[in-house]
Automatic annotation (TrEMBL):
Residue numbers marked as site, Cleavage: G87, T88
Keyword Cell wall biogenesis/degradation set for record: no
Signal peptide: none
Top-level taxon of the source organism: Bacteria
Protein name, per record: Isoaspartyl peptidase
Pfam families in the cross-refs: Asparaginase_2
């Protein structure tokens, strides 16, 4: 099992590419914050201003969440217009050699406590892949997926319990 993850980054346009660099060019599985960014910059990734992630809609979501004293998913209340969709992105892939891969990227929850890390960068919680059975990418409230190791649990139920993907997902969810 190969894995790479980054968290707490704000100057990388595509953190998932930095996660791949961690997997392919370091002995580590996860890097965070400034260290993760510097690692990525040293390998050619572009530094961007954190403002590129700010939009009027996201700011409105933040103000509404603060007013309610709530923490909400990055896509809660997002418009249904296909051109306006944003938030968590998940992908699973099967290459020509039969290798499975999974990736999850998110801007995180709106109005979360500073320092909070969700499930997306945690292998086995927000994403997991093994060539024996399945590739999984999760989206939703990360704390639930972290506590359940949801992505890994789906794979384990398929590998060791003989469940189908639908059955494993139903049991975990």
């Amino acid at each position: 099992l190969k894995a790479g993850a980054v968290a707490g980054v704000s100057h990388l346009r595509n953190p998932v590419l930095a996660a791949r660099l961690v997997m392919e060019q370091s002995p580590h599985v996860m890097m965070i914050g400034e260290g993760a960014e510097n690692f990525a910059f040293a390998r050619g990734m572009e530094r961007v201003s954190p403002e590129i992630f700010s939009t009027p809609l996201r700011y409105e979501q933040l103000l509404a969440a603060r007013k309610e004293g709530a923490t909400v998913l990055d896509h809660s209340g997002a418009p249904l217009d296909e051109k306006q969709k944003m938030g968590t992105v998940g992908a699973v892939a099967l290459d020509l050699d039969g290798n499975l891969a999974a990736a999850t990227s998110t801007g995180g929850m709106t109005n979360k406590l500073p320092g909070r890390v969700g499930d997306s960068p945690l292998v086995g919680a927000g994403c997991y892949a093994n060539n024996a059975s399945v590739a999984v990418s999760c989206t939703g409230t990360g704390e639930v997926f972290i506590r359940a190791l949801a992505a890994y649990d789906i794979a384990a139920l398929m590998d060791y319990g003989g469940l189908s993907l639908a059955e494993a997902c139903e049991r975990v969810v």
